[in-house]
Fold Adenine deaminase.
Amino acid sequence: MKLPVAELHIHLEGTLEPDMIMELAAKNSIELPYESIEDLKARYSFTNLQSFLDLLYTNLIVLRTSEDFQQATVAYLENAQRSGVRHVELFFDPQAHVERGLSLAEVVAGIRAGLAEGEERWGITHKLIACFWRHAPASDALELLQTLVEEKHPIDGIGLDSSEIGFPPSLFAKVYDYAREHGLHVVAHAGEEGPADYIWQALDLLKVERIDHGIRCVEDRTLVRRLVAEQIPLTVCPLSNVRLRAVDSIHAHPLPQMLEMGLNVSVHSDDPAYFGGYMDANIAAAIKPLGLNAAQLAQLARNSFNSSFLDEATKQKYLAEVQEWADAH
Ligand SMILES: Nc1ncnc2[nH]cnc12
Ligand SMILES: [Zn+2]
């Protein structure tokens, strides 16, 4: 039995495997700037977050119809369930699709149809989180969020992603106020490449329930004390951090130290099609190079469910599965 986990940090656009990118491009008659799939694959080497985002945003244009979003979501969920995921809180970037002329309705309906299919086929429960681009004006994010809410598109929460440095969370305070006032869950990427101060801002100004990444918190002892005291969830993505060079190597990753400090960390895959693997590969990175034992892995899995936006009864059901895994290891 694979370690049962909740996947809380996963971007739909980052789950498009090269095969699917080429298949959808052909189906939708979209010309990509690659000569072949080998040419595409040769570009999966990144120097920082931006170098990855450039490729991600080029490739996602192959998603054109509601059915494409459904197909991509189902393909992801199939990989996810194989890697131990029992519950997923899926991110998508609405701005990336609306700016290409797609309607919010077709994007959200396609993803929702895929999530429903995944629940039916593999029992994976789900939430859907719309992430706003921090490199775009906050006024655009607010306008889009108001449309999502007013037109009652079924989302469960909002997040903040894309280029981090130079785009502090403080810019988005009004967006988050609006989201909280309308009963949406709130999370934000912070402290991936950006400084620990961005984590303070996400907590104090955006009042987020979870921090995505957050690894740079270890540079600020006062911040760590606060995160531990309030048990703020940090959704850590080891393979992403290595591939985007947020850490020098997997051996230098702060995950073991973060667990030791009593931080509420869990492990996730971010953009698995780009970073070399799904949940199981990220867990494997935590086991071998980082030397975590079975008790620590079970703790990571418990943290993932406790940090999710699931109802209490479903959380308890999954926590019992983690206990079963822990008893067997
Ligand atoms: N790791 C990441 N950081 C910021 N934005 C992203 N969009 C997709 N993956 C991301
Ligand atoms: Zn991310």
About this structure: The chain has 16 helices and eight strands.
